[in-house]
Design a protein that fits this description.
357 residues, 2 strands, elongated, transmembrane, transmembrane helix, membrane
Length: 357
């Protein structure tokens, strides 16, 4: 009640907290998003895509955790306006990874299943789920307490959001975000987690053989998987989806414009001292990791073009993608050995002979 009686000492909003929502953090987020789109579009390697996604998710988690701690501590260090800007650019990894998941779902699942390590799958699923939980908690908590949130609640009425127009923050944002995160949970994250856990279980369920018979069976399974790998070549079954990449790129540009207009519309007061401190410089330096990863993916894509054309000429267009259950069936259903086939054939012949008699 006391805070509502105070008047905001700024014409617009208090100075922007650069450690949470400064220009360096925002640029790093935007660039990583663009690099992720490029890698997803041109790389047939799920391992490369996972390696590209993981640092991006970790950075997003760190920003969200910092915003939660600084916003809801007993001595808050950020304003509602800071939290709003942070929410805008921390949503970007969600959009990128949800779209990435949809795109990867159309790739050859058999190749994905037999060429993907559980070390790639499990950490990404775990940390992507953590990112979802933290983002949902942060978003709903901020919008639920938008009147009293942060270091200068008397200035919260000046907070603005740009979403196809300049809008004030009201309780409707809390309700709307609760619906959005609920839909994401039901339609994206629960199915993703279940499929990922199923695939991880499949990859880790094979135990070491304990006797000669099991060793022979293991060798047959390895030969079976080797044959499947040849049929499910990443080069043969991969097609760069440029159209989808351009669409995602355009959506990202629009959202970046919304984010930057939100910064402008909040009319932040000038910050004291230089904004280019550790919190802004470090995110830009670590861009070297995704830059190198993307450069490698593009280089391998360009070098592999002749091989893909030759493979495509021999094998035709990629086969229709199978579902996850059918893929698991292909891996588990090992063809019988030659001696088993001979034995079954002899039994069938005996049966036919007895029927004729």
């Amino acid at each position: 009640m006391a805070s509502s009686a105070l008047s905001c000492q700024f014409t617009g909003s208090p100075p922007l907290n650069t450690d949470i929502a400064g220009i360096g953090v925002r640029i790093s987020t935007y660039v990583q998003a663009f690099l992720s789109i490029i890698t997803i579009t041109v790389s047939p390697s799920l391992t490369d895509i996972y390696n590209q996604a993981f640092p991006y998710v970790i950075m997003n988690i760190s920003v969200t955790v910092a915003a939660l701690v600084l916003g809801f501590s007993s001595n808050p260090q950020i304003t509602l306006q800071d939290a709003t800007v942070a929410w805008y650019f921390t949503v970007i990894p969600f959009v990128i990874h949800i779209i990435a998941g949809k795109k990867l779902a159309h790739r050859n699942k058999l190749h994905n299943a037999i060429n993907t390590s559980s070390w790639d799958i499990i950490p990404n699923i775990v940390f992507l789920s953590i990112m979802y939980i933290l983002s949902a908690a942060f978003t709903l908590a901020v919008f639920r307490h938008h009147e009293t949130f942060g270091i200068s609640p008397e200035c919260n009425t000046a907070a603005r959001v740009f979403f196809f127009g300049t809008r004030t923050i009201t309780h409707r944002w809390f309700v709307g975000m609760a619906v959005v995160y609920g839909l994401l949970l039901a339609m994206v994250f629960i199915p993703m987690i279940l499929k990922g856990l199923l695939l991880a279980w499949l990859l880790s369920s094979m135990r070491k053989p304990e006797n000669d018979e099991e060793r022979q069976e293991a060798e047959r399974q390895q030969k079976h998987i080797a044959e499947l790998k040849k049929k499910a070549s990443a080069e043969v079954n991969f097609e760069a989806d440029y159209r989808s990449g351009v669409v995602v790129f355009a959506v990202l540009v629009v959202w970046i414009v919304f984010t930057e207009l939100t910064v402008v519309k909040n009319n932040f007061a000038p910050a004291e001292g230089s904004i280019w401190q550790f919190g802004q410089i470090f995110p830009l330096i670590i861009l070297a990791v995704p830059l190198l990863s993307t450069a490698r993916a593009v280089t391998e894509f360009v070098k592999g073009a002749p091989t893909r054309r030759a493979e495509r000429a021999r094998n035709g267009k990629p086969k229709e993608r199978e579902g996850l259950i059918a893929t698991i069936g292909n891996i588990i259903n090992v063809p019988p050995a030659e001696d088993e086939k001979t034995e079954k054939g002899e039994i069938e012949e005996v049966k036919k002979s007895s029927e004729n008699i």
